[in-house]
Amino acid sequence: MTPFASRPSADGLWTGLRDMGGAPLALAVADGVLRWAGEPGAVPAGWADARVHDGAGALVTPGLVDCHTHLVYGGQRANEFAMRLAGASYEEVAKAGGGIVASVRATREASEDALFASASVRLANLLAEGVCAIEVKSGYGLALEHERKQLRVARRLAEAHGVTVRTTFLGAHALPPEYAGRSGDYIERVCREMLPALAAEGLVDAVDVFCERIAFSLEETERVFQAARALGLPVKLHAEQLSDMGGAALAARYGALSCDHIEHLSQAGIEAMRAAGTVAVLLPGAFYTLRDTQLPPIAALREAGVPMAVSTDHNPGTSPALSLLLMVNMACTLFRLTVPEALDGVTRHAARALGLQGTHGELVVGQSANFVLWDVREAAELAYWFGQRPVRTVVRQGRIAEGEGA
After folding, report:
1. Coil, strand or helix: which one is 301?
2. Distance from C-alpha of 351 to C-alpha of 53, rounded to nearest angstrom
3. Alpha carbon 281 to chain centroid distance?
4. What share of the chain is helix, strand, coil (3-state, %, to 5)?
5. For the whole prediction, is pTM greater than 0.90?
């Protein structure tokens, strides 16, 4: 693999660009940071001798952010896809020994190097489409050594591919087989052993829980949140996917960065999220794969002013999606987001869902140089097309990572 540090620098003046409204735009980059942005005719004199990168009329957006993924795992679960097509429910698949536990077995059996190799292939698809920051959750190890293995791979992916990776500890993803009937004992181990050890090793940026009737209760979720708070770590939540458990309101009380899935989110949950500034993460890939019919309360979220992010939820069971642009299209067609809402959902709101709003998600002076040049005439095409990749150039962490412009 070619070291990312050897990619061409993006420093210089980027001209011939158009913003999402179609207006002419120029960008100035130095030392991997966006130093100036404005009209081409107003470029400061200090940039007169800078290297020029000609965008040739490309539309430019901030680098995309995929704020909810389970990218590192062993094996795959295409057989479960076939089971669901034959009529099995998500819960029936889980009770038959499939679901998350099937990925746990495969992940435990895989070496760290094997997990890195398979995750790198998946990540490459997302990066080629303009992703510049991504969240990677653990949760397929469900034992200290295997959760550590997943999180170490996530850190390696960041270094090898030159992409911002936020790691999320999801030890409370499912009950491992060895703890069958003893969820309280397992949560105790998550809180007292696994999370403190992994946090001490610098492997955890945030903490998540799957709060659902087939996973963990509100009381167990709060125990994990308390352990995270004691370590100074922000929390997130798989909330209200299959039923209204009241998880979103609980997460909001702990200042959660995001609540994700939320198809069954109540008005009380919406109000709690609004007050806490918690982002609603929409995952249309899982909705589509599970053939769900319960739509997230988009209109109510919109009216309340709760920011809505959009993500792939890449995972082997319920959203084997490797295109964030396809999720933009699905968010519009399935959830009825507007184009601006969907694009904000994979840029500035997604960055906020990861606590990265100060460095990613907008073309703002002082942020890291993460942006994408697109061969499209208007921004709506990014939501309209599916099955093509209109990327011309990706600038990631101040380097030309994909395409033209070197």
Report:
1. helix
2. 26
3. 9
4. 40, 25, 40
5. yes
Q: Any residues with CB less than 8 A from the CB of 281 and at least 6 apart, and which?
A: 67, 68, 258, 259, 260, 261, 262, 308, 309, 310, 311, 350, 353
Q: 300-304 long-range CB contacts below 8 Å, 24 or more apart? A: 300/267, 300/270, 301/265, 301/270, 302/341, 304/270, 304/271, 304/273, 304/274
Determine the Cα–Cα distance for residues 11 and 36; give it in Å rounded to an integer. 12
pLDDT in tens, 303-318: 999 999 999 999 999 9
* Gap between the Cα atoms of 67 and 353, Å rounded: 7
What is the greatest pairwise CA distance in the chain?
69
From the centroid of its chain, how far is CA 339? Answer: 19
Residue positions counted in the chain: 406
In the block, tokens 């990749």 appear at 389
Segments of 162-290 assigned E as strands: 164-172, 206-209, 236-239, 258-261, 279-282
Q: Each residue of 78-122: pLDDT tens digit? A: 988 888 889 988 778 877 778 888 999 999 999 999 999 999 999
Q: How far apart are CA 345 and CA 126, in angstroms?
A: 16
Side-chain half-sphere exposure of 188, counting CA atoms within 13 A: 5
Structure tokens at 275: 């007050």
Residue 3 burial (C-beta neighbours within 10 Å; 0-12, 13-18, 19+): exposed
